[in-house]
Design a protein that fits this description.
Blueprint (H helix, E strand, L loop, with lengths): L6 H20 L7 H9 L2 E3 L2 E3 L9 H7 L25
Antiparallel strand pairs: 1-2
Length: 93
């Protein structure tokens, strides 16, 4: 059962996600149409007799794409403070 208490919290989370998405889109300068970009990843391919399905962008792969699009996975978002060595979890060797 959905509780009314969480409406403001969900509103903030949604707003934060929209803000992060907007920031990501604002730095994109590629003029390639989205259809052309998605063409290579959305179609199934056969290689060495094995079939590999394409990415289902609006279906079962949506959650995966949301997860890997988190700003914390951006290469420029990784800092030394985030590494295991600085958090007492060992070294990166």
């Amino acid at each position: 059962m959905y509780c009314v208490i969480y409406i403001n919290q969900r509103k903030k989370i949604s707003s934060d996600r929209v803000g992060a998405f907007t920031e990501h889109i604002a730095i994109v300068s590629d003029k390639t149409p989205i259809g052309k970009l998605m063409k290579d990843v959305t179609f199934s391919k056969i290689q060495n007799g094995r079939k590999f399905r394409g990415v289902d962008v609006l279906g079962k792969d949506t959650e995966l794409l949301h997860a890997i699009s988190e700003p914390k996975f951006d290469a420029d978002a990784i800092t030394n403070k985030m590494t295991p060595a600085t958090q007492g979890a060992g070294t990166l060797d």
